[in-house]
Write the C-alpha cells for this entry.
Amino acid sequence: MRRTAKTYQVITTIIFLCLISFCFLNAVFLFYKVPEASQTENRKLSSKPVFDISYLDPFPELYETYFNDQFPFREDLKLFNSLFCFFVFQQSPLPGQVEIGKNGWLFYDQKESIVYQGKFNLTDRQVRSLVNELHLRTLEYRKKGTRFYIAFPPMKPEIYPEFLPNDFKRTPNGTLTDKIVQAIKQDTVIQYIDLKKALLKAKTHDLLYYLTDNHWNEIGAFYGYAEIVNRIRVDFPEIRPLTREDVHFNVEKYSFGNLSNMIGLSKYLNDIGYYPVLKNPKSKRLDPVHKKPDYAAQIDYEVVKSTGDTTLPSIVIIRDSYTDALMPFLDESFNTSTYIFDLWKYGRTEAIIDDLKPEIVLLIIFEPHISHLIGL
Amino acid sequence: MLFHSLLFIYYFLPLTLFFFYISRKRLRNIILLIASLVFSSWFDISLSLVLIGSISLNYIAGISIERASGEKKKKLFFTLAIIFNLLLLGLFKYLSFLGTTISDLISLVGLDPFIVKEFGMPLGISFYTFKALSYLISVKRKEVPAQKSYIDLAVYIAIFPQLAAGPIDRYRNLAPQLVNPSVSFERFSSGIKRFALGLAKKVIIATPLALVADKIFNSPVDQLTASIAWLGAICYMLQIYYDFAGYSDMAIGIGKMFGLEFMENFNFPYNARSVKDFWKRWHISLSTWLRDYLFLPLAYARSKKMVKDKYLHLKTDNWIYLYATIITFLLCGLWHGAAWTFVIWGLFHGIMLVIEQFGFSKILKRSFRPLQHMYLLLFLVISWVLFRSPSIQDAIHYIGTMFGAGARMEDFSVTTTYLNIQTIFVLLVGILGATRFFDYLLIYFRSLTVSSISVIHAPGTHLYYISGIIFVLLTLAMATVFIIAGTATSFIYFKF
C-alpha cells in the first residue's frame, strides 16, 4: 500500500512539474509556434519589453502582457472557453464587456450599459457646461459664415430595448442624453438633429443595427443620413438627398461584428450585412491636405471626398465610427466632404475649418461619448 | 503576479522550484528570498523597498532586544520597534483615511477641506507587519532567540506564498522549518493537490460568483428587487470565503512544495453556530494573532486595574471581556481596510460576541440546531454587505432593500437573468462545499477502496489515486482556460 501511494506521489509530482514547465518545454522543443497576430482579437501580439534598469516600473506589467500573449495554444483555449460559455452556459465569455441579449443580439456592456442604466450621468452643472460649449461653437462658426449642426446616433439599446437581457433596464430618471437633448432644445441657437425618433419609426419595417456589433448597419445609417440631410436642406435647398431608389443594398452574411469578434465567435454567430451600391456614384476620394496631429499618427485622421459639383455646399464632419456607414451617402450630397476623426475628442478643429472655410460643420457623436465634449 | 496568473503558474513557480531543488540546502533560503523579492516588486518596484526596510529594521530590533542589558532597555527597544512597525502600516494604509476624516470634520465647522496625498500600499503590508510583530513579541517574551541570520528572518517575513494575504504564520512555527525544510514526494504531491484545490476554489467558484455579486452591488440600489439584493449578498458571502480560502489553500500548497507546513486558515467557517465559533474557524491565523497579542494582553492589563468583583451589577470578568473584545474587533475591522465600513463591520462582530457572552450563547445552545446555523448565516450575510459596500449609507440602503425597504417591485424574470446555469451550478457547489459535504463524500469514496487498499495493486487503490491526478489535471486545465479568457479576478484580501 505504501509503495503504491509513493508511486502515485511520484507520478503526480512528475505530471505537475511537466505541466507547469510547459512554456519552457515549448521554448526548447518548439512544438507550438506562437503566431505574430491574434486572429480572433484582430491585433498584433505584444512583443518582449526591453529590460531597462533605469526605468523598471512599467516592466512587470509589460512582461506579463507579453507572456500571456505568447502562451502556447492561447487562441485555441480562448476559443474553447468562448464556445463553452456561449453555447453551453449561454453566457457571455467576456462578462462586463459583451452582454448576450435575446434572439442572438449582442450588446456592448461598457459605457453604453452604464449610460443606459443611469450609472453614469451628468450633473445639472455639467449639462449646462456642455450645452454652453455647443452654443459657443455655433456662434463661433456662424461668425465665420459656417452653419453648425449636431447629431447623436443613438446606441443600440435605445432602438432595440426589447432584445436586451432582462436585467439591463433603462434608468427611470433619464439618461445623460435625455438631459442634454432637453437642455439643447431650450437653446435657440444650437441646430440639433434628432435621429432617435426617425430610427424608432424605421425599425418597424427595417433592421437598423447589426446583431453582433454595437453599430448601426448601412440601412440604419441611411435613415440617419436622410434625417441629417433633410434638416440641412432647410438651410441649403440646393442639396439633393439620395432616396432609397438611388441605393441598392446587397444582402450578405456579416462576420465582422466587433462584439462577436471580442468574444472570438465571429465565425460562429450569424448576422446580416447590407452593402450599399449606389446607382450613380459621383464622389471620389482625395488625398488629405492637413498635417496629422501626433496622437493621430496611426489612424485615418482626415478623409476627403469630392463630387466636384460646385453648386453644392462643402462640409466638414467631426466624426467617430458611427459615421463610417454614413459616408457613402453623405459623400454624394456635398461638393467636398472632409471627415475628421480625432480619437473621440470631438474638438473644434479650428485650423482645418479656417483653412477650408466650409459652409457646413457637422458634429456626429455616438451617444455615450457626448460627455467627451466637457472632457468626461 | 497573482497565484492564478499564467506568469506565476507557468514561469515563476517552476523556475523557483527548479533553483530551489538544485541548490545546496544552505542556499535554498537565498533562492526563496530572491523569489519573494521578485514577487513583491512585481506589484510595485518602488513600494517593495518598504518591505526591505521593514525586514532590516526588525532584524536589528530583534537582536537589540535580545542583547539589551536590563529590562528597561529591552522594553525601550521593543517599544520603538513596535512604534516603527505601526507607523509604517499607518503611513501607507491609514494616512489617507485619517486625513480624509479630519478634512471632513473640519469642513463641518466651515474650514476649507484638504486633500491628503496617497503613497500607494505595498503588497501585503498588513500581513508582513503582523508577522514582524509576532517575531518581536516572541523575542521579547524570550519564547525564541533573536534571528541572527538576516536571510532567514527576511524569508520568514517576506516568503512569497504568504506575502500577499497570509496565513500570518507565527515565527516560532515557521523559523525551525526554514532552517531545515522537510522535502519529500509525499509532501510535494499533497502540496500539488492543495494548490489545485485552492485554484479550483478561486477560479471555478469565487470568480463566477464575483461576477454576479459585482454586477448586483454595482447596480443603483433603487433598481434592485429584494430577491436580487439577497442573491448578491449570498453570492458575495460565498465569494469572499472561496476567494480567501482558495488563496490560503494555494499558499499552503506552495509551502508544502518547498517543504514547509503553514498554519491552517479556515475550518468550514459557515458551519459555525455562533459568532464566537465563526471566529475560531475564519481567518484563523489572524484571529489567533489578535487573541494572543491583543485581546489577552488587553484583558490582562484591565484585570489588574479592576479589583472589585462587580461594577454596576455586572461581573468584572464581563466588563473585561466587553472592553477587550470591542477594542480587538474595532482594530480587526480597521486592519481589514481604512474605511468606516470596516470599522463598523468589526464593531458589529464585537458587539455580537459580547451579546453572546452575556447570555445569548446559552439560549442559542439550547435552541434547535438548524436555528443556530440560521442565526449565524443571517448575521454573516448582513455583516458581509457592510464589508462589501463602498459606504455605510450604501450598506444601509442595500440591507434595507434586502428586507423590502425601498426595493423595486419584484420581477422574477430579472432575477432569473442572474441565475443562469453556471451561477446555479456554482452556487450549489459553493453551498455544499461550505459544509462538510465534499469532505464526507471523499471519505466515503476512500472507504469504498479501503478493503482493496491493503492489497497491493488492487483496482480500487489505483482508482483513488488516479482520480487525484485527474483532479489536478482538470483544475489546472480549467484554470488556464479561464485565466486566458480573462475572467479571473484579483483576490479580495490582496487589498488588505
Remarks:
- Chain B touches chain A through 59 residues (CB under 8 Å).
- The longest strand of chain B covers residues 310-311.
- The CA atoms of residues 146 and 240 of chain B lie 37 Å apart.
